[in-house]
Amino acid sequence: MNQSRISNLRQKLIDKGFDAILIVKPENQYYLCGFDGEGFLVIGKERNIVFTDFRYVEEAKSKTTGVEIVELKYNISPYEKFAQELISMGVKKIAVEGHYLTLKSYEEMKNFFNGIEIVSTENLVEELRTVKDETELDFIKQAQSITDKTFSHILGYIRPGVSENDIALEIEYFVKKSGADGLAFPTIIASGPRSSLPHGKPTARKLEAGDFLTIDFGAKFNHYCSDMTRTVFLGKLDKEKERMYNIVLDAQKRALEYIKAGVSCKEVDTIAREFIEKKGFGKNFGHSLGHGVGLEVHEGPRLSQKGDGCLLPGMVVTVEPGIYVEGFGGVRIEDLVIVTDDGCINLTQSPKDIICL
């Protein structure tokens, strides 16, 4: 599996005229060779090398395939060691992850890479990661299954007097207890008027009757993420809150029905956005409709007005329209789906009917 991924990347390097690429981003290192410690990965035309220090050498040897392991010494700059190996490999032009490499690292690299042209690139590996294989899909399915199980559990925990922090802690505990590596990202909990914050961090605020409560969380299983959002209500639901919820739900349903391979990412966003605009809440839907999910909870493709390209079979994306009214509250409903040739498979099994607790 790793060899096919490396081969695909190597072909991209050849097509773009590169002799090698330096991988710094941890998720990209893991995707290509299975290494999840601290270090660097170089993919060349014939050799692939993981550079790491003493703390991770044994782990690198046991977890990686198709790569050499070179130990970095504490008294020598890693870029000096890179340069030695690159020169021995005959590298004249190397790609680097310009969106991830720090300026300090780049300057240090220039000091040692004499005679080697350094070119900043973006998303060479991330583009390969957008379409998932069956193993990746299985891990994402298991992560989402844990997320659904956790949501079912947390519904029995929510009541007036419980704080947002209490809910976030219970979610993290239950996710790990259910077999996940941990959370896919810091849980978003926003209640009452705070629910108008799309990415509200949990606070000590205690739930009150009449509150909106938005919960956005995910699990990570074998490095792969899930992502889900539900908005529930405490106590009696008034007509305006019910109307807002149903608009978001209908917008999501329309987008889900539209998704299939070949459809442009921008079009999917437009379907939901125009529906919400017609209902008078266009200015209250200020984020994109969705994003890819995999080794990172936010990755390509992007379902937005700036989204490039079309959906492909095997892509995993969120569909998460929302309406946020400052001082009143907000609603977001998010599902995780696999794109197929003729539609999509919804991995999220948690109910979307209005839940009043």
TrEMBL record:
Residue ranges of domain Peptidase M24 in the record: 140-341
Name any one Pfam family assigned in the record.
Answer: Peptidase_M24
Which CDD domains does the protein's record reference? APP-like
Class of enzymatic activity (EC top level): hydrolase
**EC numbers on record:** 3.4.11.-
GO MF annotations for this entry? aminopeptidase activity; metal ion binding
**The keyword NAD belongs to this UniProt entry's keyword annotation:** no
Domain of life, per lineage: Bacteria
**Keywords for this entry?**
Aminopeptidase, Hydrolase, Metal-binding, Protease
PROSITE patterns membership: PROLINE_PEPTIDASE
Keyword Hydrolase applies: yes
UniProt domain Creatinase N-terminal: residue ranges: 5-131
Q: Which family does it belong to?
A: Belongs to the peptidase M24B family.
- Recorded protein name is Aminopeptidase YpdF
Organism name: Fervidicola ferrireducens
Q: What are the top taxonomic ranks of the organism?
A: Bacteria, Bacillati, Bacillota, Clostridia, Thermosediminibacterales
Gene behind the chain: ypdF
